[in-house]
Write a structure and sequence with these properties.
3 domains; alpha/beta; binds fructose -6-phosphate; 8-stranded antiparallel beta sheet; Rossmann fold; globular; Glutamine Phosphoribosylpyrophosphate, subunit 1, domain 1
Amino acid sequence: MCGIVGYVGSKQAYPLLINGLRRLEYRGYDSAGVAILGTDGLIVSKCKGRVSDLEAHVNGTPMAGTVGIGHTRWATHGEPNDVNAHPHVSTNGDLALIHNGIIENYAPLKEELISRGYKFSSETDTEVLVHLIDDIRRNEGTDLAESVRLALENVVGAYAIVVVDRNTPGTLVAARKSSPLVIGIGEGGDLFLASDATPIVEHTRNVVYMEDGEIAILDREQGLRVRNIKNQEKRPSIQALEIQLEALEKGGFEHFMLKEIYEQPRSIRDSMRGRLNLAQGSIVLGGIKDYEQRIVNAKRILIVGCGTSWHAGMVGEYLFEEFARIPVEVEYASEFRYRNPVINEDDIVIAISQSGETADTLAAIELAKGRGATILGICNVVGSSIARQTHAGSYTHAGPEIGVASTKAFTAQVTLLTLMALMVGQRKGTIDGARYRQLLLELEAIPAKVEKVLKTEAQVKYIGDIYKEARNALYLGRGYSFPVALEGALKLKEISYIHAEGYPAAEMKHGPIALIDEEMPVIVIATHGASYEKVVSNIQEVKARKGKVIAIVTEGDTTVKEIADHSIEIPASPDAFVPLLAVVPLQLLSYHMAVMRGCNVDQPRNLAKSVTVE
Ligand code: F6R
């Protein structure tokens, strides 16, 4: 939700900022803007739309300067337009500020500033910050960093902010609370700043992840200084970035989403690498090793997440219950935190998040931590807030996911949950030895099977072409395939804007069956396994009402093929691993239908990749 970049150094800031904003555009694309401090003073350019619209808008304006900030917005307060775009500027034109987050007490602050003569031009919550800092600086005579610190003492909410001041050339001041900020330390005094490491990696691998409550001063002459909100100096801890630059490019694919779908054999392998040892028949998850016994002894596991990560959590519920015989509750993080849930000290809470920044998931972690539970994280983004707030965890190692619709993160999350559940089951003795070894072999074979599923793309595209004008779609699955049905429906609606619902197949006759007619595509996961015959009956019920059935079936299936309108084969696999295979054709189906409908699949309307607001 909103992307922030900043630069101080000896190079021209504008091209660096634009490149950085392109990398961060997945965080929001309602508007974009930059402020450059140079020989022509403080120049601000901003407009509604994407980074490419900003470039067109800037065209011709001199943007010389070696200090600057840039912003790409996902609107919360105030509609996406030129005025509400960041940076926001103080009335005297001295300060420009960018912000990611929400200032919850902006209304009383605004009222107070208005009563003191400040004029607001935008409808944003952010604008109060720039006037407040300006007010303190002028009345207290404090320098920029101290004015920012004093201003933030009055602020309630979440923020990552960066301020540039034309009276303090060569310096940027940044601060964070609940919204991420990473600082890059380059050669020759170059300092970079961004919402995540993707704009930084091409310049330097040395980074500092800012902590909540910290204020950073990035100064061309004096380098980086970090203070806490109480004004105590802190020693920044420099870490090495591991992201590869190629991982941030499309690599010949038309869209990031398609590239990421195709990366899944690799990303699933990477999430098992060094963890699954077939020769020894062992699973070792280094990140949670110290907590293994606690998980084995757990009377209950709570899984929290949002969206696709919540769907992965649902698969996790089935896995832990089947293999480890531990009761599991899967919670939407947003509901969990506001419901006064019962949390016991011996509960294990698993927080799942691709970005590691989702505000609701972070808040759920805080709540559970406060009640004494053990919190484990499954995150993709290394160094992210959730990864740092949990007691322990395992990274999914899927690599940067840039398409807004989550694909490879889902399969990597499910892979990790599978490893965890099998590991705990083996330690508890709830899976017998022979079955355990067989399951490890089957799991190891999954990446090669995903490669095979990807070969169905042409067939999936052909089917997508037939149904691309559909107005509604229904996704059905049972057992392990029910969360896959939910995930398939989410993928279709978020990128193609076709209304889609996922249901447990048996629930269809309790309501949704009323929707079925000749127009309605019904996508059914009907693979061989525990509930195959029941699902076949559900397909018959759809066909009896003239619905169109697209079935995901096991290779060699004949029964469903005879009754379904279309069937897509996936290799045979134990029920528990079907989600890792069955989701792939559903991702491809959504992708192709969205492309054929002319939708922007990597940046669907109204969405952002990293939901850092509640
Ligand atoms: C759907 C999607 C979202 C995210 C959700 C949680 O394709 O991407 O539903 O899954 O916003 O995000 P993370 O996993 O970053 O916490």
